[in-house]
Amino acid sequence: MGFHKECELFHEHLTEALGEMWTDNDDWHTVDWSQHAIRFIGRMSASVFVGPQLARDTKWQELIVTSTMNTFMGVRSLRAWPAFLRPVVHWFLPELKKCRQQMRLARLMLQPIFDRRIRGKATSSKSHKTEKFNDTIEWLEEIAAGRPYDAAAAQIAFAISAMHTTSELLKQALLDICTDPGLIPAIRDEVDKAVRESGWSTTGVFKMQLLDSAVKETLRLKPGSLVNLERKALRDVVLPNGMTIPCGTNIAVDSSMMWDPTIYPNPSAYDAYRFLRLRQSGNTGASLASASPEHIAFGIGKPICPGRFFASNEVKIALATIMLTYDVRIPEGFDPKVVEMGFEMLSDPVAKLESASDIQLPPARLGRGQGPFPPPLAVGHVPKDTSYDYGRKSLTKQAAVAAMLFIGYGLGNIVGPQFFLENQTLQYTTGIRSVEACMAFNTFFLLCLYAYYILENKRRDRELGPASGQTYEAVDDLTDVTDRQIPGFRYTL
Ligand code: HEM
């Protein structure tokens, strides 16, 4: 799958999840950020790992969100036993029973997809048209090339490598961004411009460089772990400086260079612009997915995290989408804390946020069926520009205009979306043209109305003499008269 398609999928699935969980409530309300961040990443990752169908399945979402934690718990419970007993006790430990149960469920849920694809391939080979799938189910099939493998275990493994790390980063990144109120508008502007220019694509995501820097700064301050590159020496290793690491020793690289004041001035402060400045000064290691000896949150060298581009795009798209559609802030009195557990660094496990849907969405923020749809065919005009007080009287006119507006609005909302075609996702050329055409028609009809008012005023001056300045109050006893029956009435232009 090209990363372009991946970016679109991330955005599409997060938008759906936001609609379901954060809704379009435009009043400030508290959201369970700690839980929601995991669910958002689960949904976005699954759209690429197993395709849109399973990604939307709530049972699958539950499975991948909980499988990571269950596996960690399982490993922990097994470690309490001596190594020689583990091949036996694992059958009896409740945590590991749960893991096996989830594996069976994953197999059951994946099987219909395999069956459908096999049937689809058989049909398409007859018609010489091969249906292409772009997800890890398909990639694994291609790589396995007929060799047996456990597809369910592979998916759980994907979830374990991708879910916890990425959702931790998303969680902390948004909390950090919220601590600097000036940052949100700056990122929002950058994201808005990038999406307008390049859509939800890798190019668009590349252009979000302040956001990139902000997320990298979060990863510097709170990497997944206080140490990295954990290894076990399987034989005696002699280092170039002559030091020997005896066989069986567990070693790791301390992450503290990421907080070293000689490398990062004022290292404990969150400075969202830090890596942007470095990048602008030509430092090629300053982008989020790059690693350097001074920033090893994704590891370094040969075994560096292969999912770092995936994770970077995913977190940036999640933050960009949230920032374009919601206002977010940390609830008053809540001070999120990073928790250290062994080597692990966890963002606040009870982190809350307040969010409010931002209803003033520019077109770049909208996709088919999401957000408030601007009804292109429902443009109405209320003639308020007269010397007559339509606000209080003229009930027939008001009712007629309101009915026309209502019908126009309804029709616009039915007909308008039909112009936003699936195959034009993100460009929506026909949709945009239809909006432009409606605007042009609207302007034309307004000009006609304006010309009519001028001509009508002139006709009245000619036929009835100059306007008397008579106001509605002056003819209050004539409640039922129309403008035409009031000789002094003129349209205000
Ligand atoms: C913010 C998110 C992520 C962080 C901070 C992160 C970090 C890391 C780190 C530190 C390593 C170990 C490097 C080492 O010990 O040498 C690693 C390995 C790995 N990561 Fe990630 N990762 C993230 C997201 C992902 C995602 C989304 C995927 C999959 C799509 C992924 C797949 C892997 C795999 C397969 C390895 C093992 C590589 C190997 O052993 O050769 N990671 N990651």
TrEMBL record:
Heme binds at C305. Its cofactor is heme. Keywords: Heme, Iron, Membrane, Metal-binding, Monooxygenase, Oxidoreductase, Transmembrane, Transmembrane helix. The keyword Acyltransferase does not apply. One of its GO terms (biological process) is secondary metabolic process. The keyword Ligase does not apply. PROSITE patterns: CYTOCHROME_P450. GO terms for molecular function: heme binding; iron ion binding; monooxygenase activity; oxidoreductase activity, acting on paired donors, with incorporation or reduction of molecular oxygen. The chain crosses the membrane at residues 399-420, 432-455. Belongs to the cytochrome P450 family. This is Cytochrome P450.
